[in-house]
Amino acid sequence: MEIPFLPTGGWENRLEELNRIESSRPLWSSSPSAIRQARNPLILQQLLEQAGFDGLAVRTSKQTWMPRGEIDVREWIRKSRGSTGGMAVRRVHSRAPISLDADEFDQQYVEGELFSAQFFSTQGKHELLGMTRLIAGCPELPDRPFAYVGNISCPPADAAALNSEVERMGQLLGEAFSLRGPWGIDLCRHASGLYVLELNPRYTAGMEVLELATGQSFLERPHSLQKRRARPADLIVGKATIYAPRDFLLPADWNWSDLGAASYDCWDVPELSDLARPGTRFQAGDPVCTVWERTTTVEKCDKLLDRRRGEIHSAFEQLT
């Protein structure tokens, strides 16, 4: 039996390698050619606007595309096509000189609540699995205000207000790009509308949060509906990445259990995950570990994650 390959974060930037893998193993994802199309910001925004959704202006080193109507773009965000996790994203004022590298593009900047919608596509059907709140930016990364930090599952009542529009977006994008398997879109809810910031044509960081919150495996679709694990109706699950605030070495005798790490079943919400080995040296801005919380509201979860992050950083203060 051939073991399938599941691309996760960053594989959209390694398409030649993914092509080679696809020749020998089945992919639990869209094809490399579909991923390339879906990651084109100009095609994405034009497609959304043509279908009646809100589109964001895009400019590259060769052209500028503006949505219909009177658009006054005062600020852009500049992205590198090869970056992940918002690490190479910065704000650019509209009056600044346009000086774009070949692998960079500008996208209209909008401010508002950030969400991530997760989908699963199979046999031409594109199912909305759920939504999470996106957490971006943290004190450890002052020069990277758009850096990915984490996700918090949305309660059904909160997601319901967006579900209809997001489901229609999913049907449009899934069909247009021939997507298959797990994928997601990042969204911004602004006073003027709901905007797609980018499409991630793979298993996303928010999916494990939703899987633990709902008690079902999205990779087992459609059988996971029959294998659902019991969960409280009001359960909210969240996670946040801890980044190194400065250069330091994790001592050889470092014990993560002192900070609450423990063995856990794969369907338990852990205290900590993605743990670095003792003896690892970090540079400022490197991811060190992930903290988790489970509670009953998004607001509580956000506060608990902040407190937990503070506890971890306090433990790092004495390290050199």
Can you put this structure into words, describing what you see?
The chain has helices at 15-22, 32-38, 41-50, 156-176, 207-214, 298-316, and strands at residues 58-59, 64-65, 75-80, 90-93, 104-108, 113-122, 125-136, 148-153, 181-190, 193-200, 236-243, 248-249, 272-273, 281-282, 287-295. With 320 residues, it is an alpha+beta fold. α1 packs antiparallel against α2. The longest helix is centred in the middle third of the chain and has 21 residues, at 156-176. The chain starts with 14 loop residues before the first helix and ends with a helix.
- Beta-strand share of residues: 25-35%
Low-pLDDT runs: none
Given the C-alpha coordinates, what overall shape results?
A: globular
Q: How many structurally independent domains?
A: 2
Entry keywords:
five-stranded antiparallel β-sheet; 320 residues; D-amino Acid Aminotransferase, Chain A, domain 1; 2 domains; alpha+beta; 28% strand; Aldehyde Oxidoreductase, domain 3
